């Protein structure tokens, strides 16, 4: 039986044996997802999209399932007030789940924590606990409207004393609930059953998006055993299919160790050559770490990470800020020092960006290191960084668009935006050394207001948004702008692939489905064949029409009609026309007709819809030139072992039958390479390599060796072509 909120809280307080004073619910001020601090954190979460994970920064929540607010569980040893999905809406991007069987006889994966490791069973908690399935639904529900985001799920999942196949059951649940969203090890080129280690020195959020995915799942449990032997294939083959086991880690000598446990709170951090094992030293080695506050309600007075201490960890180099009791200080369970959303924010200053006078589209680093949006024509000096992420300020000033040339004048520097709080501190020091207080950053929203792009050359995409026509209050508002944001954040190879529209028995339009396809780009990641679809209205199996677009095809025109239906306007007719002249239409055009036919490509829709009808429609359009042609990738190729060197050049691959004989070197769009054994990216080996129009190679003579002194690593390569005919 569901009890009232006040009784529910009081019951929990009594279970804990505490003397908590219950605040009236009216005094609890929930931070809305549209609050300015949430906007700042959400924007910040995409600044590092193009950075390797070892330089990314994630706002996190520990034991996000153990929530007061979430109706799926009745937890007493809580870590959070909000449900996992509510935390995502507030800018949290990584959550941690503890997964154990319900009981000795019930192997259903549940969310609970007791600290008993393999012996844990959730029935010992004596309260209602949520299932893993409902916990995974929290991620998919959020991503259904946020396809431009990348989330991380940390799992604590031990081998069970009671159920031999328990982790495989977890794998089955992941497949069932999140299958199309998860960036799997095989998407990075691992083989089935491999103990795949998260390649934090190379993998980027951008690679995840370019693969057509949104979620990274990683585990490390247990921390003090050999992770690969523990997560062996015999009892975890389905688990290994979806979950990364630990992370890659460099030691002070530059040696790579795979499947290492996370460095959490400096425990197990790799030491540098001076024996330093701080977050700062770990970060400098190119590794990944977690600042963890595991405080529960039992220890609410012992919260360690809050306020300025949170960003202090980020400035040291911690990548995940995994906090407890986020935003809980005005609830019955919180302490006044519980962390708040703004504690995570190192970037935008309070109240920014505000687009003052509707003319502020470029980011400035202020005197205190926080960001402000400003008019792009102002004259300032520029923040520049080299390939080793060393910061310097340009010697010249100018408008924002002059940033690339101003930084290039310094030598091997480019116009840049800091990836994280640590880099931002380095930039602040560089400004001090240069004797300036403000500088332009390579961060702007010149294409779409509110959609900020970092560390990219500005290119006008010809964006426009039409007014939604129809009832302005019926149904629920929807906006598929997240698909266009995904295209901008990735490598641009996302395109509209197909559209289906349906009419009901009365001959009126009532449903539209737009599906997008991610095509291959130059990346270690393989683009998924999964389509990403957006649906609006009711698909009741009625009469439908469908159009499939070619690789160069797009929708150039849209016509729809709005008419009264029982006192409310709704869309009764919809027609799309492609650049090739093909068209589809459903419904009967009565009432008022609206047309979009500017010659641009109609990329996404916005408007209002219910479970029955589409009440209003508008469109997001971009220039037709923004269609990125697909690339065609070989498998990972390894034609020889190093002797005088490792020869993976184009002609050698062709003579080995790995590339079509009709293909020319001019058809190569790019090449990526990595070490065969540990999958280490070639750029991280420190070796002098050939990667040019001849293909890829490593020569011993270029690396201090000769034919009898092999120094080159054994590399495997992947070639990318502009023509499908180049594949054998």
**CATH-wise, what's the superfamily of the largest domain?**
Phosphatidylinositol (PI) phosphodiesterase
Number of DSSP-assigned strands = 38
Structural class of the helices, strands and pairings?
alpha+beta
Helical content band: 10-25%
Structural domain count: 4
End-to-end C-alpha gap: 64 Å
Task: Explain what you see.
A hairpin with a 2-residue loop joins strand 27 and strand 28. The radius of gyration is 27 Å and the shape is globular. It has 728 residues and is α+β, with helices and mostly antiparallel strands. It contains 14 helices and 38 strands. The termini are far apart.
Record the SSE blueprint:
Blueprint: H1 5-15, H2 36-44, E1 58-61, H3 84-89, E2 94-101, E3 109-111, E4 130-131, H4 132-143, E5 151-156, H5 166-178, H6 205-210, E6 215-219, H7 227-230, H8 233-242, E7 244-245, E8 247-250, E9 256-260, E10 263-264, H9 279-284, E11 289-292, H10 308-316, E12 320-323, E13 362-365, E14 371-374, E15 383-385, E16 391-393, H11 403-408, E17 414-415, H12 421-434, E18 439-448, E19 451-454, E20 464-465, E21 469-470, E22 476-479, H13 481-489, E23 494-503, E24 509-518, E25 531-537, E26 543-548, E27 555-565, E28 568-578, E29 583-587, E30 592-596, E31 601-609, E32 614-622, E33 632-633, E34 645-649, H14 650-655, E35 668-675, E36 690-692, E37 695-699, E38 715-721
Parallel strand pairs: 1-2, 1-12, 2-5, 5-6, 6-7, 10-11, 11-12
Antiparallel strand pairs: 2-3, 3-4, 8-9, 13-14, 13-18, 15-16, 15-17, 18-19, 20-32, 21-32, 22-31, 23-24, 23-26, 24-25, 27-28, 27-30, 28-29, 31-32, 33-38, 34-37, 35-38, 36-37
Helix pairs in contact: 4-5, 5-8, 10-12
